[in-house]
Sequence to fold (367 residues):
Amino acid sequence: MLKRIVSQEEAHQLTEVLRELEATTSVNSILMYVGADVNLDVATLQEQLRQMKTTVIGAVFPEVIIDGQRFSDKSIILGLREEMASVTILDFDEVAIEDKITTAFDVPEIENASIFIFIDALVRGKSQLLDTLYNLYGSLPNYLGGGAGSLAFRPFPCIISNAGVTHGSAVVALMPKPITLGIAHGWKPISEPMKVTEAEGNQVISLNWQPAMSTYQKIVEEHAGKAFDFGDFFNATKSYPFGIQKLNDEMIVRDPFQTENERIFLLDDIEEGSFVQILYGDLESLIAGAGQARQAATDSGNLGGGTLIIDCISRVLFMGDHFERELLALDPEANAFGALTLGEIANNGDSYLDVYNKTAVVGLLEQ
Fold:
């Protein structure tokens, strides 16, 4: 693997780095992680990407991870030996997705493959994409990826592929090598399970037939022993996400980020009729969760080809300066690369494919 790091001051050199890697005989595909504060020359990058024969996948994320540190103003570009097939998704109709993926991917040994998924965090079609992939390939490959964009939560071109730099889109790539994954979060339930009795997309309208926001507020204020100013909603709720219980699976976390008219808006969709609990975490429990993710990946076999981290940007906002401890737990050797995302996509072969929030994922690549 070849690694190139490009600073904000050198952002104009991204196209030169892509040309250099494509000309390198040992590089057969390219993986890019770009910080949200990098001033991309989108038009020039578009032209270069569309000319390239080598598969390129990547995205713009709130922050990137480079050698045990996080940056919003740097990019990391990785030249991989493995040749990947990729497809850019612009239409999130399930039939259209299935047609594009089955046309692009030749998967005779899917159990030894890995699938990367980078998706615009503001897209409403995440579930259609993930459901289609799971219906096609099940849990045989390992899936890894995340939601792209910035903390401004405004649409902009953030998905990078051979189709260019696009928004409202996703890129999916098949790599014919395994990635060993560990997934954990460190959040614990503080409420009894509640039925989502009314929901629309990512909006929780009622819980146990009661208005969602009133129900949520009562539980978190009783647990905290104090009243919250929910006018600053994100700050007030950062310690109290929702958890969706799945059979034989670790609880999937959903991040609340806005409330309006008694509705609670989550970063990703939630199904009406599902059961949720309100979770709580503190600094020590989250760092312990990060360590569990690292240990789970290592226990499955350290393949020695590099460490990839996908972690949630809201964990950074929660921990502040203490996030360095989380990075150390995830990456003791301080040589990992990856992204701090708006939703984490992962599946380690024994669960349904879904989007996580507030979760840490460690991937170990094969040598």
About this structure: The first strand starts at residue 2 and ends at 7. The CA atoms of residues 152 and 216 lie 25 Å apart.
